[in-house]
Amino acid sequence: MKRLMTYGLIALLISAGGALFAADSGKPVVVGSKIDTEGSLLGKMIVKLLAARAIPVVDKVGFGTTDVVRKAIIAGELDVYPEYTGNGGFFFDGTDPNVWKDEKKGYETVKKLDMDKNGLVWLTPSPANNTWAIAVRKDVAVKEKLVSLDDMARFANAGGRLKLAGSEEFISRPDALPSFQKAYGFTLKNDQLLSLSGGNTALTEAAAARGTDGVNFAMAYGTDGSLFALGLVVLKDTRGVQPIYEPTPIVRKDTLARYPAIDAVLKPVFLSLDLTTLQSLNARIAVNGETADAVAADYLTKKGFLK
Would you say 126 and 273 are in contact if contact means Cβ atoms under 8 Å apart? Predict the structure, then answer.
């Protein structure tokens, strides 16, 4: 009931008009993002949502790599951009690596550390995990009842036909496939692995979708657009082997003070972006060739976030 009342209040404020949201129209909000597909999509959403509420914006979506956008927001060159909770482990050396494998603890930890050290506010994250993962062809998943990596282990240990495509790094790095095998209690033999050079998940996922050399499982990232397009399903990491990377808008403290409604504007949108939704939206850009700007506008309009 409390949640319904909260969302109702947000909807009422949004529908009331842009004037409620422009606390200081003299200084624009500079919106940035990383240069990848999902970063551009989320960045364009932020730009459109703020502009629609009469908050002046400067569009710098596709600003640069993680290191570049991170330095820019700390320096005040950017005001807001979408980041990932699990990157807190890279931003803050010496933290317990297990923290980043817990959805709530990871978010609360990076939220506190970034506020204390850099004056950056982590807003509401999306319920989607864009982390290293293992995906399986949907037809195999349905037939064998594969939902999680526990199910994959059961299937492997029962002698099921399983062959996985992955990069050499994914197959050999202790924190990648070996960590999955150790945690879930299964072992893949050499003839159950197809090692591909580089770390391009588009290649591993394509191999699984096409059944190249008998491959039906693949190294993946959780919100890859090609997963949806190729008919692959990400297996749930129920034991938290990998860090959780939930996309989250982060904003400078002084910017949020000028425009406090930024939080209320972005919250319902990011909450709507679950794993399958992001996969489908990313696929429209990466696979179908649509622009991030067009996909963002279409999604926000159809969901009623924009008129």
Answer: yes
Pairwise CA distance, residues 60 & 91, whole Å: 22
Q: Which amino acid is at 7?
A: Y
Angle between helices 262-272 and 37-52 (to 10 degrees): 140
3-state SS string for 219-241: EEECCCHHHHHHCEEECECCCCC
Contact 29, 57 (CB under 8 A): yes
Q: Is 231 left (phi over 0), alpha (psi -120 to 50) or beta?
A: left
pTM reported for the whole predicted model: 0.77
For tokens 């629609």, the residue is 52
Strands 217-221 and 164-167: parallel
Handedness of CA 37, 40, 45, 48 (dihedral sign): negative
- For 152-176, give one letter per residue: b (16+ CB within 10 A) or e: bbbbbeeeeebbbbbbeebbeeeeb
The one-digit pLDDT tens for each residue of the chain (307 residues) are 333 333 344 443 434 444 344 445 579 999 999 998 899 999 999 999 999 999 999 999 999 988 999 999 999 999 999 999 999 998 998 999 999 999 999 999 999 999 999 999 999 999 999 988 999 999 999 999 999 999 999 999 999 999 999 998 889 988 889 999 999 999 999 999 999 976 678 889 999 999 999 999 999 988 998 888 899 999 999 998 999 999 999 999 999 999 999 999 999 999 999 999 998 999 999 889 999 999 999 999 999 999 8
Show Cβ contacts of residue 277 under 8 Å, excluding neighbours closer than 6 positions.
Answer: 128
